[in-house]
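Q&A log
Question type: sequence-to-structure
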Amino acid sequence: MYGTVARLHLKDGQQGAFEDQLKEFEKRQAPGFVRVLLYRMDADPNELLMTVAFTDKAAYVANAESPEQAASYGALRATLTADPDWNDGEIIMEATG
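Response status: OK
Response body:
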């Protein structure tokens, strides 16, 4: 699997709009998409960490370069105070309970 871990900072009052954008992304069912996990930080409720997983790097890159994702990112970016800090890489382990 392949994906990203992103640190994001929401504008005040934008959590609902941000989550709506993630739901729209999920509905789109981008080829190779596996999951998104979203964490709200205890120290700052407007700071989020988001992990996104795709089946492989090719699917991740194809999504990132798609016009649909460009439009989705524009709407998502409008809810943030700054560009996200993206950290892309291969997912080397997954454990479940």
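Response note: The longest helix spans residues 15-28.
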